[in-house]
């Protein structure tokens, strides 16, 4: 094979490898892109420190809470109240009730989604049960707290924010490798 | 253009080749490999077509008559996979193998042994895919787009075979594309400058770059599906922090350039046939080259127009709507150039020209329904209905497949040394033209009326239209048997074809005798 061919084949093969890597690079790129823009209603997976923000008493935002267990998840999972009205900047605590009606211990992971997606950037969680996996022995129940505030910088067109949690059964991952799995494939 | 080769001279000492099956298994000759690709594509075309017949049989009447829904889903999935990866793409690769070396005055493809490999792994890929249908639980049934979680959480046990088959198809395509690029870049005859290349060569060069850039992304996304399903990763699983919508982004980043992979070589074929039978030079050669390149670049910026209903922000839908509509501009340039080439030409209407003309008209219809689908708010109504099915079958069947058929009729005298039967060819054309429109045109209406795609049953008000469409489908399927007969008849004998059977044809391939000798252009021709 002549040298002209080899150089070109080398370059083209490099392009093939680079594009394969690019396909995988789209995974973190997509997450970064969603974090920055709030597309898909992804909220931050890390707690924010409670800032002594100014409370904007001039307007009220309705927060709606939706919680549902995934089809394979046997827990009963619901918010204490369906909706609350808050002033931007106020810190609130909201409890979710989880009950494990089965006879075995199950580990759950809640995945949040905010709608409308653009409002996700302005919904801050100081503490959330969704940051970690939750262990619940069979027949037990517990209250899982969420501490949050709405950023006063929330654009005026948003008057309602819907926060939805889907709860997944991640017991198999817990047994396999403990909580480390979470950081590896985390949001 | 003129050549200094004499075919008789190298017939004597070069034309010996192994006989029987060994010739085909071990061949490194671009013409043999081209023939293998074309025969394989034709076989897959009939297999995929048979699956389409099952789909149309079930949809002939509302209710479930012949197959159960899970088998119906396997039929839609396998029909899509086989037609895309088994029929259209290998047919274009076969044409590239046969024609590109002869068009640029090269003795063979640059990497003949790799060429043998890229063909011979393909039958195994499809064997694996087809075998998966006979395993317990059945074959892939999640649509050719294999959206997660259908292909991960809810797919059956044979999914690993599907993934493996797609990997092999990808490797085959990538090797073929590298071969095409190296051949075109390094092996052009002296004097064959870039802007003298026939358009079929240009469009294939650009297609090969698209293949190299997106097939690895497809390989990546099927690998993610494989690890999500079998190795507990969570790329597309929300429970582990993944996102199913991410699948659609990665898939369509491959998928949209893929549709141009299936149409750019068609543009090259039509740009070769129309000037021949209009007996005029192609109008706007340079603009054709630039339009092809623009379409290729734009194809990377439009993928999310397949995903308008996933809840994207308004800004993103606007961006993808505008870039999609922008593609209509270079495509319009092409259609304009073909029409301008025919303007005041001395036209005759042999079978290749008839198929090329049908291509121009019907592909434009498919393009216009594409512009309708690009309008975001309208797409909310059209999404996942038969309107989409009508759209992509107009561009792929009466577009890509018609162009391949036109190319076969156009170059068959060069390949076999015989003229095809013009009467049978015309019969094939008219049967195909009428039945393809009976088959796909009414789908626009049932789609607009709300009939969803990929469902084995439908509401009663769609019954008449679907019966009509099914009859069109059966007729189209039967019409292709005429094509098979024409090709076999031509290969076995017929009127001797001269070196240049079409008096308006131009290009190096017409300067070698018909049938083209086993080795051509051992001494490069001098292109003036």
Structure description:
The complex is a heterodimer of chains A (187) and B (528). Chain A is an alpha+beta fold. Chain A has helices at residues 3-37, 171-177, 180-184, and strands at residues 61-69, 76-79, 83-86, 92-99, 106-115, 123-128, 134-136, 141-150, 160-169. Chain A has three helices and nine strands, in the order H-E-E-E-E-E-E-E-E-E-H-H. The longest helix of chain A has 35 residues, at 3-37. By secondary structure, chain B is an all-alpha fold. At the A-B interface, helix 1, strand 9 and helix 2 of A face helix 7, helix 8 and helix 9 of B.
Features:
heterodimer; A: 187 residues; alpha+beta; 5-stranded mixed beta sheet; flat; disordered C terminus; B: mainly alpha; 18 helices; disordered N terminus
Arrangement of strands in the largest sheet of chain A: 3-1-9-5-7
Instruction: State the secondary-structure class of chain A.
Output: alpha+beta
Strand content of chain B: under 5%
The pLDDT mean of chain A sits at 83
Q: Helical stretch count of chain A?
A: 3
Q: What is the CATH class designation of chain A? A: Mainly Beta
Order of helices and strands of chain A: HEEEEEEEEEHH
Q: How much is the average pLDDT of chain B?
A: 94
User: Which pair of protein chains has the largest interface, and what are the residue counts?
Assistant: A-B, 42 and 39 residues
Strand and helix layout:
The complex is a heterodimer of chains A (187) and B (528).
Chain A (H helix, E strand, L loop, with lengths): L2 H35 L23 E9 L6 E4 L3 E4 L5 E8 L6 E10 L7 E6 L5 E3 L4 E10 L9 E10 L1 H7 L2 H5 L3
Chain B lengths: L6 H8 L6 H6 L3 H29 L10 H36 L7 H9 L1 H10 L27 H28 L12 H32 L13 H18 L2 H15 L6 H14 L15 H13 L1 H15 L8 H24 L1 H7 L3 H31 L5 H27 L14 H30 L36
Helix pairs in contact in B: 3-4, 3-5, 3-18, 4-7, 4-16, 5-7, 6-7, 7-8, 8-9, 8-10, 8-11, 10-13, 10-14, 10-16, 11-13, 14-16, 14-17, 16-17, 16-18, 17-18
